Amino acid sequence: VLEEFKVMVKRALHIHAIHQRLQTSQQTGGQDFHGLTGISKSMQEIYRFIERVALSDISVLICGESGTGKELVAHAIHQNSPRKEDPFIVVNCAAIPDTLLESELFGHEKGAFTGAHAQKKGKFELAHTGTLFLDEIGELAPPLQVKLLRFLQDRSIERIGGNQKIHLDVRIIAATNRDLKKEMDNNLFREDLYYRLKVVPITIPPLCERREDILPLARHFLQKYGREHRKPQLRISPEAEQPLLSYSWPGNVRELENLINRAIVL
């Protein structure tokens, strides 16, 4: 009980500090925000959204094409929240086979299945008091969707092979590049889970819709990888700017980052 009280006081102090900062800060239009870079109106709106939604423990659903920076937005929400000193755990639901993902998320008891030689804590338990970021949530298999919904309803899990409820304090942030509404209409994604996750939705626009961010991002990556490759004096020439601005960037920010990194190396 004392530990829970300490956590509540810590979070209350943090929320008070953020409220004071929001009241006194001017919107200066800066381009850097907790690892995010952008001067466009849409990115400035996302910064303000992050500052406000971070204060609560409500679930957030981040939508956007691959490479737009959904994980960076999730991390920025965590870093602006009262949970910033606690774990930020990332799970890419598309990168782990369904047969392993349940154990990865919820853990298992010793002997729960062949090869389970010891008890294992899952990502939910590792994220206790912090934030769990579920990337590519649209890839989650129906049985795991049910287990996630159950957690969102009663804030408890059961390890595979166990029968004891484990109550956890975890904030859920999910992300997808899929149209979950369409997936729901096709019975591929649960309607009740969709609305549980979509309490606070945010959509990150593709890079081609915020072209004013292209050069600031390019310079940011030039500085970052210039230091990494010991070429800190490199600059983007005026001749190079126009091709960067006119390209459609189907791979979004990730494609731009890879291009600048490759250009510095070669």
Q: Which structural category fits the helices and strands?
A: alpha/beta
What helical percentage do the residues reach? 40-55%
- H/E element order: HEEHEHEHHEHEEEHHEHHH
List the total number of helices.
Answer: 11
**How would you sum up the major sheet?**
5 strands, parallel
First-residue to last-residue Cα separation: 58 Å
Mean pLDDT: 90
Explain how this protein is built.
This protein has 266 residues and is of the alpha/beta class. It is 46% helix and 12% strand. A hairpin with a 2-residue loop joins strand 1 and strand 2. Helix 9 packs across helix 11. The longest helix has 23 residues.
SSE map:
Layout lengths: L1 H23 L7 E2 L2 E2 L3 H13 L6 E4 L6 H10 L8 E5 L5 H9 L16 H4 L4 E5 L6 H13 L1 E2 L8 E2 L3 E6 L3 H6 L5 H7 L2 E4 L10 H15 L9 H9 L5 H14 L1
Parallel strand pairs: 3-8, 3-9, 4-5, 5-8
Antiparallel strand pairs: 1-2, 6-7
Helix pairs in contact: 9-11
What are its keywords?
single chain, 266 residues, alpha/beta, two-stranded antiparallel ribbon, 9 strands, 12% strand
Provide a compact summary of the structure.
The chain has 266 residues and is an alpha/beta fold. It is built from 11 helices and 9 strands. The protein has helices spanning 2-24, 41-53, 70-79, 98-106, 123-126, 142-154, 180-185, 191-197, 214-228, 238-246, 252-265; strands at residues 32-33, 36-37, 60-63, 88-92, 131-135, 156-157, 166-167, 171-176, 200-203.
